[in-house]
Amino acid sequence: MSERVQAEDTIVATACPAGVGALSIVRLSGQDAHRMVMRLVGDKLPPIRTAARRKVRSADGQILDESIVVCYRGPQSYTGEDAVEIICHGGWVSPVRITQALVEAGARPALPGEFTRRAVLNGKLDLLQAEAVNDLIRAESTAAANLALQQLDGGLSQRIVQLRSDILDVEALVAYEIDFPEEDDGPVDEPRILDAIQRVIDSIDALIATTPAGELVRQGAVVVIVGPPNVGKSSLFNALLGRKRALVTEIPGTTRDALEAVLDVVPVPLRLVDTAGLRETQDQVERLGVEVSREYLTQAAAVLACGDSEETLADALNNAGALARGAIIPVRTKVDLLHGAPPHGLGVSAVTGAGLETLLNHVSTLLAEKSGLPAEESPIVTHARYRYVLTRAREELTAFQATRLENTVPVTVSAVHLREGVRVIEELIGGVDVEDVLGKVFSSFCVGK
Question: What's the mean pLDDT when you consider all of the chain?
């Protein structure tokens, strides 16, 4: 990690979204943070890490708000710098006026993610943990939030640090071979080097293999409800969500487009999609909806093929089978109108709720098994950037491995691949100065974080 950096400028931003609410937070970080807040409160600042009520005033003495002020002294703060949080009343006015007063006092409006970026530069977080902060804020499900918390706790970081250490161990063996070729105990055993590098490659492969599971947990598995018109697809969609999102009528062709919502279940959240009925139609708008349905079918991790009779269920299965790449689950709808269990498919009723929990459990178990979710505490690759960096590191290590096996280049040349592998791995945790990587990562953050 980098040594502590004290930026010359002091930044300010609200840490809560604009709008009506009980409270809001204005954050300030930088070497002049305490002095600037003193200009607004006109009183002695509260002791470090002690909350105290203060009247916040503008430069001309006008009271802007009565707030709670908490001061932090670097490096014992989120950013590693001197910092202040002003907890003011929410709404559209107070946070804006306080922020503006601090700008007039000399602070600069923060850029997206700049607080967390300073935390990384000051060694408070590594880059993976910083991205986990953003993932946690943007999580749409319990599973995604849990995964972000695990990464924020350093689970993936520890695995990456271990990979780096393992590569350095191989590099040390090669360095010994280069520097002390005539030692009494002879050169380092070639199988020892090759076994060590293969273990690192296997570890990287195991991490890369978790990428589909990580994407599934973060984004949710697309589960598409399909079937002929008027077989109860929208009713099932509403019943599974527990609230009305789709218009339900007796008129075929009511759903003209796809409706999408996240169903917060574990271990894999479901991105449930209600689609237009699959049928040939002369209605131009409905035909466009059918095309959207077919497109979703090709992307779905699972398809609920719905029918309210043997005929409509068979029709749904045929249409789904022609396009779907994911698992197809037959679902017999409107079982409350049947006498006895349906002969085919999982029976559900949107009216009574029968079979809904069984259906959800079946879908969740199926997707968890197909995704290959690792053990709950195991690190998971959650971003395409991580997979890309790991793949680059693997390429360097396999290149080193090939040169050793083929014995085509001097040891000093083959060792360059190890050094590059270490450098690439360090990009993940921010162990090197990679401004372009930092800029790209933090551009997606909210301003107050």
Answer: 83
How many residues are recorded in the chain? 449
In the chain, the amino acid numbered 85 is: E
Rounded Cα distance, 181 and 407, in Å = 16
> CA 275, CA 299: separation in Å to the nearest integer?
13
316, 344 in Cβ contact below 8 A?
no
Neighbours of 364 (CB within 10 A): 20
Residues 6+ apart with CB under 8 A from 261: 237, 241, 245, 271, 272
Q: What is the pTM of this model?
A: 0.72
26 in helix, strand or coil?
strand
Give the torsion sign (CA, 260, 264, 270, 272). negative
Among residues 3, 61, 64, 6, which one has the least CA distance to residue 32? 6
pLDDT at residue 253 above 80? no
pLDDT in tens, 33-79: 999 999 999 878 999 999 999 999 999 999 999 999 999 999 999 99
Give the separation between CA 241 and CA 252, rounded to whole angstroms.
Answer: 22
Distance CA 443, CA 449 (A): 11
CB burial string 117-126: b at 16+ within 10 A, e below:
bbbbbbebbb
**Tokens coding 228:** 């002929």
Joined tokens for residue 224: 């598409």
Sorted by where each starts, the structural domains of the chain and their CATH numbers stand as 11-126 (3.30.1360.120), 140-210+380-429 (1.20.120.430), 227-371 (3.40.50.300)
Residue type, 182: E
Q: Return the minimum-mean-pLDDT range out of 89-98, 215-224, 277-286.
A: 277-286
Kindly list the distances between the CA atom of residue 283 and the CA atoms of 152, 231, 273, 437, in Å, as whole numbers in the listed order. 51, 19, 22, 49
Cβ 192 vs Cβ 271: under 8 Å? no
Mean pLDDT of the 380-388 span = 90
Cα–Cα distances in angstroms (integers) from residue 22 to residues 8, 55, 91, 168, in the given order? 34, 17, 7, 52
Q: Residue 309, class by beta-carbon neighbours within 10 Å (0-12 exposed, 13-18 middle, 19+ buried)?
A: middle
**Cis, peptide link before residue 75, omega less than 30° from 0:** yes
